[in-house]
Structure formats: structure tokens, C-alpha cells
Amino acid sequence: MKTILVTGGSGFIGRNLCRTMLTNDWQVIVHSRNPGKAANILPSSVMLISDLNQLTQSVDILINLAGAPIADKRWSVKRKAALTESRIQTTQKLYKYFKDCKQPPSIVISGSAIGYYGGGLANNQPVTEEGAVAPNFSSQLCADWESSAQQFENLGSRVCCLRTGIVLGEQGALGKLLPPFKLGLGGPIATGQQWMPWIHIDDMVNIIIYAIKNDISGPVNCTAPKPVTNKEFAKTLAKVLKRPAIAPMPAVVVKLLFGQMGDELMLQGQCVIPQKLQQQGYQFTYNNLASALGQLLNTN
Q: Phi and psi dihedrals of 155, rounded to 5?
């Protein structure tokens, strides 16, 4: 039986991942700052610890998903520091702990995001794992996060960094978009031409497990093969909900309400595609946005 340590296990991706991993007959340990709260979210068979020193056995696989939500608040100086610390410092602490262990994890799966590529609408060319970067705060944050995780290669670990797109599920971005769209008040943001690479939560979970079971290392774009623009996303969501999508949000309003966070995450975007996963033979369950939304909203 493999022993898997998960950080960020009570988050949106983490909780879905933990449930699925238990079906693989793996022992799942979740490191949480609030074990009591995590216990109300995760299956009872998940072992919870609040300190790495509570580990009593070696860890075969480390899945590091810890990180403060990036789109919940405006990016003040304090918020940027929190976003950085929750990702880079957490990863550094994990590395320091396992560096002193006799048997470090053989596999390290670490979080990242398509924000690695930065923003820009200079061209609509597909962006693969070798794509160019248009620097901004998001890209630097992701690059530093990945660099911290890559240190595990010094311990002999196979390291895979998940450059995750917009994850669609019962929580996350979709949950925030539904209320206005259900009221018929949804619509594209600004021009709507910015790309929104997306992925269904089921595929997100399955990709992590696929990366564990297959020899995948380095950065991996965790996005569906068919990215859409913001305008197409709004149109598709409205169609699935049988509502109009005629209330666009001007760019000036986005910048006024959300500042730099809105500028980078809502007004910018690149056409990211999962080239490495496709080359490695991963079969997506949800290729089409309409079918993914239909399944999540029970309209199929």
C-alpha cells in the first residue's frame, strides 16, 4: 500500500482527490493547519496531521496543493505576501523536512497554474509547456513555486508541476459565476477575447492520479484540449442555463473593483493546451465545455 501525503487536502481539488485516491487502496495522510475543520470535509479514513513531525512512516508520494486562494481578494502588498508565503514557504518547509529523512518521497506532485505563462493577448497561438512567458505577478509566483518544488529532484524524487487552468466543479470559479448568470445578468468580461483554459474537476483529479501512475515529470498543462475565449465561455454557460448573456462587464469596472488581480486573472489569458498529457496518452473525459457544464449543472 502506498502512503500519500497531501497538503491543501481540504481545498476544492484536494478533497475530490482524496476521495478518489482512497478507492485505489492507498493510505492518504492530509497535513492541515486545522485538522478539526478538515475532518468535517474529508472521509473518515483519511489520516489528519497538523505537524510533519507527527508522521510515523515514510511517505511514498507527496502531493503539494497548499496555497491561499488567488482570486478571493484584491492584491494588496499584504495579500501578495500571503499568496507567496502560502505556496513557496510551505514548499520550502516540506523540502527541508524530507531532506533530513532517510527515505524522501519517490514522487512529488506540486501545484502551479497556467498563470505561469503570464498575460497578454498579443497572439492567439496555442501555448504548450514550452510556451513563452509574458511576465507579471502571476507568472513570477508560479515560477517561484515550481522552482521550490524542483528542489526535490536533488533528493531523487520525480517532480511534476501541475499548471492548472480554471477548474470547473461544485466550487471555485463556476460557483461564483452561477448566481448572476442564473438571474440573466451574466455576460462576457471586457472584449471577451481573453482565453479561459478550463478543466473539469473529474479530469483534474484523474490527471494527478495519471501522473502518479505514469512516468510524467516537469510541467504539465492541466487544461482541456479545447480552450475557449471568455465570450464563448459566457455564451455556453448561458445556453446551458437557458438564460441570456447580454450584460458585459467593462474592463474599467473590473480594474476598479478588483485592481491588479482583476487585470491579470479576468482581463488577460492565453490559449493553453495540454500537449504533454496528450503525448503521454491521457484520455480526457470532458473535451467539450458544453458537455462539461451540462454534467456539472445536471442539464445533460
A: -95, 0
